[in-house]
Amino acid sequence: MTAGSNPASSGAVAPSVAPAAALPWPAGLVLQPFRALRFDAAVAGDLATLTSPPYDVIDEDGVSALEASSDHNVVRLILPREPAGHASDTAGDRYAAARRTLEHWRSEGALVPDEVPALYVYEQADAHSGHIQRGLLGALGLTPPQDEIVLPHENTMAGPVSDRLALYNAVDADLEPIFLVYDGGGAASRAVAEADAAEPLIDVPLPDGLRHRLWAITDTARLDEIAADLHPRKALIADGHHRYATYLQRQAERHAAGLGTGPWDLGLTFLVDATAFGPEVHPIHRYVPGRPAEQLAELAAAGMAVRAVPGGLPGALGELTEARGPAYVLTDGDVAWLIDQPDAAQVTAALPAERTDGWKALDVSVLHGFVVPVLWQLADSVDTVGYEHDVDAAVAAARRTGGTAVLLNPTPVAAVAAVAGGGERMPRKSTLFTPKPRTGLVLRDYRDV
Questions:
Q1: Of 217, 228, 214, 221, whose CA–CA distance to 186 is shortest?
Q2: Buried b (16+ CB within 10 A) or exposed e, 397-430
């Protein structure tokens, strides 16, 4: 369990929103300029010590390491802990601690707002692979899922949403962007592509191994062109479903309290054209504690083709890449089985009849709707099926728990978009879009917008 998770969370939830007539939902995709709150290195120190990964991928050891790197590391805001010497460490005290920390950093000049509103072009470049991701950071006009402008593809859980809501309400700020992708072309994509003709505000390698650069777009005519280009488009949530649900819940609560329109009608967002400078998509692997791989392979044979792969894990991963249709590798790190070709009649009987063919064809849908509950006779819960973002971590978790790593192929972006566009949600933890935006480069504080 990561430091950002909440053991009390259970069950998928939809964000609670006020009646449509009460909320200023835009009719299209809106990304507004804002005044970014950014670290001043002269006061806060080296930027490489100030940022962090997103809150939901940091474990307790990671929090401690980031805290040790600097008194100004942003982890003290996104995963706050009550300062030593305080009698209570309840959640409310931690959120209040984050508020005090933000106030202190502003007052001492460690965090300083930019002078004028801007859309920010943000780039993450990997020198080793050559991959470059570049997009726009701005304040997204919030819309509900039923409007089909911002498309979620995964359900959310109650615990993480309530945690982020309490934190964001305490600090009155957006501390991390959500991550959206869209099919681009047009003025917004051109502005992103042309940004590096100017000197960047930030140009720094960070501990994630990437070079991060940031430019500000403040020209009114160019901002108007970008706005007109984006308005008729739709965008898919690549990462940050819980934060987007938090944005919607916060907006609903502020309007229900009679506060009217305000900065809570928007949320910090990173928007990337998937057709140019887009992300890479990786699978999120699973592990099943306490169940040996050989046992799960034998059970899978009741409804799938199963074969042990000579050469163990490396050979199995190669065959997985070549597989067509739902396929998985079961391994304990030493021996490995490829299971594929699920029996069509059994899958049809197991999956909900109301689901679309696109949803039923997803590897993750077949795994969680057929393999886990039917062939393995296991409850599909976070206690029974765990999640890891890479093969080594999944295998390590399987070894640690005396269980099995279940390795998957990535879900194509087009398949994710098709499911989301049809109003459906994928099983939890279906996709990993990388690289994720680095936390701490840009904050959005209500008092600055």
A1: 228
A2: bbeeeebbbbbbbbbebebbbbbbeeebbbbbbb
Q: Which of 233, 265, 247 is nearest to 168 (CA)?
A: 247
CB of 273 within 8 A of CB of 180? no
H or E element that contains 363: helix 363-366
**Where does residue 27 rank: exposed (0-12), middle (13-18), buried (19+ CB within 10 A)?**
exposed
3-state DSSP call for residue 79? coil
The helix or strand, by DSSP H or E, that contains position 353, with its residue range, turns out to be: none
Of the candidates 328, 358, 359, 360, the one whose C-alpha atom is nearest the C-alpha of residue 347 is: 360
Contact by Cβ (8 Å): 247, 161? no
Nearest C-alpha neighbor of 319 from the set 335, 338, 305, 304:
338
Q: What phi and psi, each to the nearest 5 degrees, are found at residue 374?
A: -95, -55
Tokens of 367: 């795994």
3-state DSSP assignment of residue 53: coil
> What are the CA-CA distances from residue 386 to residues 75, 330, 393 (Å)?
25, 14, 11
Least Cα distance to 121 among 237, 31, 239, 251 occurs for 31
- Which of 17, 18, 63, 72 is closest to 45 using CA atoms? 72
Quote the tokens at residue 324: 């067509």
Could you give the CA distance from residue 74 to residue 55 in angstroms, rounded to a whole number? Answer: 10
pTM reported for the whole predicted model: 0.82
d(CA 22, CA 25): 9
Phi, psi of 287 (to 5 degrees): -145, 150
The H-or-E segment that residue 297 falls in is helix 293-300
Per-residue pLDDT of the chain in tens (449 residues, 90 and over written 9)? 234 333 333 344 444 454 545 799 999 999 999 999 999 999 999 999 999 999 988 989 999 999 999 999 999 999 999 766 555 445 569 999 999 999 999 999 999 999 999 999 999 999 999 999 999 999 999 999 999 999 998 778 888 999 999 999 999 999 999 999 998 889 999 999 999 999 999 999 999 999 999 999 999 999 999 999 999 999 999 999 999 999 999 999 999 999 999 999 999 999 999 888 999 889 999 999 999 999 999 999 999 999 999 988 999 999 999 999 999 999 999 999 999 999 999 999 999 999 999 999 999 999 999 999 999 999 988 889 999 989 999 999 999 999 999 999 998 888 887 888 777 888 878 888 999 999 999 999 999 98
